[in-house]
Amino acid sequence: MTKKMISSMITAFAVLLGLLWLIPLIWMIGTAFSIPSFHMTLFPNTAFTLDNIVYVWNAIPFGTYYLNTLILVCCTFAVQFFTSTLAAYALGVMDFKGSSIVFAVIFMQIIIPNDVLITPNFMLLSELKLVDTKVGMMLPFYGSALAIFLLRQHFKSIPKALAEAARIDGATIWQTIWRVYMPCAKPAYLSFAVISVSYHWNNYLWPLIVTNSPQNRTLTVGLAIFAKSKEANMQWANVCAAAFIIIIPLLTTFFVAQKQFMSSFVSAGIKE
């Protein structure tokens, strides 16, 4: 076989895998816009309708769930952006004793699943009386080991001559961070933004445990409660319509800016 044939076969195999991954999404979208039925089919065999979307939107307070989720996602990322930048600068640029040990401890946190920390985090929030609050949902995620790791690697790859030139011109440490290091690490910031936003948008277990009232529930918790309620009428069309309402912002954002997302992940490779 020639290299061209091998390349064509690999491409065809990749396309086939992509189509297989798209099957659940196609089924979900098709079912969401079809007339409710107790029979499940891969492709909809009924007329197109928007009644499912309207019914689901009116059945549960999606507006409140959307607002809570947006607050959770945006505020968490904003705090992570600030804390991770300062930590990455300290570990990647500044020289102090024990920096390697501190970085090793932070790096080890990446391999610890968040679900393992649910019990101690919940006990701490109970002591602080932050259960069933938006701050309680966000507090355990204000620091991100992954963001610190990505930014540290990028900061270490930036020539120190740029920072020294900025200091000669009279820039302070804060100005050096925000005007020299941050612009050079845009791919790392964008890569982590995708990871952080998608994780907290889709996170289910922690918001379920820490919230009790509809005023603080997120979209994923609301979807789970709706799927088990009588409003769903045991029909997949209503459940799929609710799921479509939840994923449409992320889905639209990805298709609009997929080139930027892909290039950011490539540019954010591990550098030393």
List keywords for this structure.
mainly alpha; 71% helix; globular
Low-confidence stretches: none
> Tally of extended strands?
0
Portion of residues within helices = over 70%
- The termini sit apart by 38 Å
The arrangement of helices and strands along the chain is: HHHHHHHHHHHHHH
What is the gyration radius calculated from CA atoms? 23 Å
Number of helical stretches of at least 4 residues: 14
Protein described:
The chain is mainly α. 71% of the residues lie in helices and 0% in strands. The chain has 14 helices and no strands. It has helices at 3-32, 51-59, 62-92, 99-108, 118-128, 134-138, 145-157, 160-168, 173-184, 186-202, 205-210, 219-227, 236-256, 258-267. Helix 2 (51-59) crosses helix 13, helix 3 crosses helix 7 and helix 8 packs antiparallel against helix 9. The longest helix is centred in the N-terminal third of the chain and has 31 residues, at 62-92. The chain is globular. The protein starts with a helix and ends in a 5-residue tail after the last helix. The model has no long low-confidence stretch (mean pLDDT 84).
Provide a short characterization of the protein structure.
This protein has 272 residues and is mainly α.
Q: How are the secondary structure elements laid out?
A:
Blueprint (H helix, E strand, L loop, with lengths): L2 H30 L18 H9 L2 H31 L6 H10 L9 H11 L5 H5 L6 H13 L2 H9 L4 H12 L1 H17 L2 H6 L8 H9 L8 H21 L1 H10 L5
Helix pairs in contact: 1-13, 2-13, 3-7, 3-10, 4-7, 8-9, 10-14, 12-13
